[in-house]
Design brief:
Elements: H1 3-29, E1 32-34, E2 42-44, E3 50-52, E4 56-62, E5 71-75, H2 80-86, H3 107-116, E6 119-129, E7 132-139, E8 143-150, H4 152-158
Antiparallel strand pairs: 1-4, 2-3, 4-5, 5-8, 6-7, 7-8
Length: 174
């Protein structure tokens, strides 16, 4: 093998290894399954209290690296009519993508159901960590999804701007 072929082969192999490591880090390294027995899905009532939903068939993942990595799928016997009379709606619910191996959660399909009105979004818990809300979406058949979404308070503060009017005080920065 000539010196040029050796160098080219080393570059190609290094790039392939780096690409594989990057893919693994983004899609596998930090996620862990959440024990279904440990998952509680709560929704905020119109009176501002958190109400645990009856759920089954739970599948959830999370990561310690970011609050945005949480995703859950579940089913509930509650009707959408009852939920709209009891729980706070969530405006601008935007399902976040998830690793392809987490089969029960399809962000595009969930967004399409929200857009057509086949599923409705509710506030799980506002500012469970400053600037992040838990969002719950339930469709007509009782299939539900949950994820964490940055809210307007977090979006402003984490960009370095002051908290908008109506937001809780921003946490102290170190």
């Amino acid at each position: 093998m000539t010196k040029g072929k050796f160098v080219a082969s080393a570059i190609v192999l290094s790039a392939a290894a780096a690409g594989a490591l990057l893919w693994w880090t983004e899609t596998r390294a930090y996620y862990y399954p959440v024990d279904a027995e440990m998952v509680t899905i709560e929704a905020t009532t119109f009176s501002g209290t958190l109400d645990p939903l009856p759920i089954a068939d739970v599948d959830a993942i999370d990561a310690d690296t970011s609050p945005l990595r949480y995703r859950a799928c579940f089913s509930t016997p509650l009707s959408l009519a009852m939920m709209t009379e009891t729980y706070e709606p969530y405006e601008d619910a935007t399902p976040l993508n998830t690793p392809g191996w987490f089969d029960c959660y399809d962000a595009d399909a969930i967004a399409a159901q929200i857009a057509t009105g086949d599923a409705l979004a509710f506030l799980g818990e506002a500012n469970f960590i400053y600037g992040f809300d838990r969002v719950i979406v339930v469709n007509q058949s009782g299939q539900g999804y949950a994820w964490h979404q940055i809210n307007r308070c977090g979006s402003a503060v984490y960009d370095g701007d002051p908290a908008p009017r109506g937001c809780p005080p921003a946490p102290e920065r170190n």
